[in-house]
Every structure is written in structure tokens, then in C-alpha cells.
């Protein structure tokens, strides 16, 4: 009888859907990581770069008064070092014979259009968002010549909701420091990260602030 109850409980439990070609589960977060060699002071340095979302401020003309206004958006970059946060993490959604790649940051879909990787609101019938599997490599349905060659899908460690929603590296929170506001400036950087100073105490610099320090074309 106990064995029968065990079998019934296993049947009732939901088994995560698995994609054998990609070696991924559809309910898990992953990094797209690629090892690349760069030169620094004449030495070859191996770095792991990830497909990730980067924060960017842009200026656009306001039609009402022709003044320039600040706009915020996230762009997709492939030449930045991997970091353990939701901007670097993606999950997969099946779409008939294809898969969609969705950002863990805000559930926007990755798509390939005009020779560029971008993100936007997910649609059920957009070929630009669909990816196919060729020789265990993801390629764009819209242009099968564009593939994520050399990228490995690495499973991300499970995170609490507090950690996932943190606006600065969670190690600051773990040690009792708050995240800074977006107006805070970096006063020092050490092995723990970049620090600011607000309200009479140290705080962790936001991801958005760190992104703006990077050179983004």
C-alpha cells in the first residue's frame, strides 16, 4: 500500500519539461557564457563573457517643446564579463517547434533583427523571437545563419526573491548594507564591490550606476 501511495504521489507531481537537444529545463535560469581571449599589457587573458542586459540612458527630442529628454532602456551586450545577477540570466519557453529566450530581469524576449540581438515584449507569433536548434546550437529562426556559436548554457544557482529583486549586488545586503540611491557616487572599490556613502553610512552602488560607467556604443 505504501508503494502504491508513493507511485500516485509521483504521478501527481509536476516534472519540469526537459529539452534534450539543449540540455536545459524550461523552468530554470541559465547564463549564456562564452570564453574569449583578450590582450592586456601584451598578455593573453581568458575571460568569460555573457549575453546580458545593460542599462543605458539615451536622449530623444520632445515633440512638444523640442527639448531633449532622458530615456531609460536596457540593451543587449555580448562583450561584457559575466556577473551573477538577473541581467545575465535567461530562461526558455517552448513555442511549438521553436524556443523563446526570455530575460530573468523583466520577462522580455530576446530577438534577432537587423543583425542585432535585442529584447522586447514577447509575442506568440514573431519569427524574430523564435530560435531553432541546429547541431545543439541555438540559431535565429529569422536568419538561420545567425547562431549563438561558442556559447554554453550554464545553470544559475537558485536565489531568494529578495536576492533576485536586489538593485545592487546582494552581498552588500547580506552584510547589512543598503543599496545606494541612483544619485550616489562611487567613493571606493574593493574586492566586495563599489561603495557609496549616503545618510551617514556606506551603501552598495546600483547596477544601473555601474552600467553607465561602462563604454556602451
TrEMBL record:
GO terms assigned for molecular function: hydrolase activity
Domain CBM10: 163-206
PROSITE patterns: CBM10
Database matches in Gene3D superfamilies: Cellulose docking domain, dockering (3.90.1220.10)
InterPro entries found in the cross-reference section: CBM10/Dockerin_dom, Dockerin_dom_fun_sf, Ricin_B-like_lectins
Pfam families tied to this protein: CBM_10
Record keywords: Hydrolase, Repeat, Signal
Name of the protein: CBM10 domain-containing protein
Organism: Neocallimastix californiae
Amino acid at each position: 500500500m505504501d508503494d502504491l501511495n508513493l507511485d500516485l504521489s509521483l504521478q501527481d507531481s509536476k516534472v519540469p519539461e526537459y529539452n534534450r537537444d539543449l540540455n536545459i529545463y524550461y523552468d530554470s535560469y541559465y547564463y549564456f557564457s562564452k570564453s574569449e581571449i583578450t590582450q592586456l599589457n601584451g598578455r593573453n587573458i581568458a575571460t568569460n563573457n555573457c549575453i546580458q542586459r545593460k542599462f543605458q540612458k539615451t536622449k530623444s527630442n520632445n515633440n512638444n517643446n523640442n527639448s531633449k529628454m532622458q530615456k531609460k532602456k536596457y540593451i543587449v551586450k555580448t562583450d561584457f564579463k559575466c556577473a551573477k545577477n538577473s541581467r545575465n540570466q535567461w530562461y526558455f519557453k517552448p513555442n511549438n517547434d521553436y524556443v523563446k529566450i526570455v530575460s530573468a530581469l523583466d520577462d522580455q524576449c530576446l530577438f534577432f533583427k537587423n543583425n542585432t540581438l535585442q529584447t522586447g515584449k514577447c509575442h506568440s507569433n514573431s519569427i524574430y523571437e523564435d530560435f531553432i536548434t541546429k547541431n545543439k546550437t541555438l540559431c535565429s529562426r529569422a536568419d538561420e545563419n545567425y547562431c549563438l556559436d561558442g556559447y554554453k548554457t550554464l545553470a544559475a544557482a537558485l536565489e531568494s526573491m529578495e536576492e533576485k529583486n536586489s538593485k545592487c549586488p546582494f552581498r552588500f545586503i547580506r552584510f547589512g548594507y543598503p543599496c545606494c540611491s541612483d544619485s550616489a557616487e562611487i567613493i571606493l572599490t574593493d574586492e566586495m564591490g563599489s561603495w557609496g556613502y549616503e545618510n551617514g553610512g556606506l551603501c552598495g552602488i546600483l547596477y544601473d550606476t555601474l552600467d553607465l560607467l561602462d563604454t556602451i556604443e
